[in-house]
Design goal:
There is one protein chain. The protein has five helices and two strands; from the N terminus they run H-H-H-E-H-H-E. The protein is mainly α. The chain has two domains: 44 residues, no CATH class; 51 residues. The protein has a two-stranded antiparallel ribbon with strand order 1-2. Helix 2 packs parallel to helix 3. The longest helix has 21 residues. The radius of gyration is 22 Å and the shape is elongated.
Length: 109
Amino acid sequence: MAYTFHELKGKTIQELRDIAKGVENQEAVQGYSQLNKEHLLPALCKALGIDTHEHHHVTGIDKPAIKARMRELKKQRDAALEQHDGDTLKSVRRQIHSLNRQIRAHVTP
């Protein structure tokens, strides 16, 4: 059965050990019965060929356009820092913060 990192992370240590018992590549999970979850999970992911981090997807918004706008704002922020313009700096930082929050609100695991 194919697993994802998120599914494996939610399993108990005993369930992970049972999965490790059935893995074809035993060298990657050698000593699985003695490993704790922190060490067994990456070894199991390596043996099964699974990425060891979770991927998050943004849905419902145009992320590339927002990221492009953020890059422009960061240039404006740097210019405001150089000119010691506090009002512009505050405004630009708030806009960057708002865009970041917008992206994070649309993230799905």
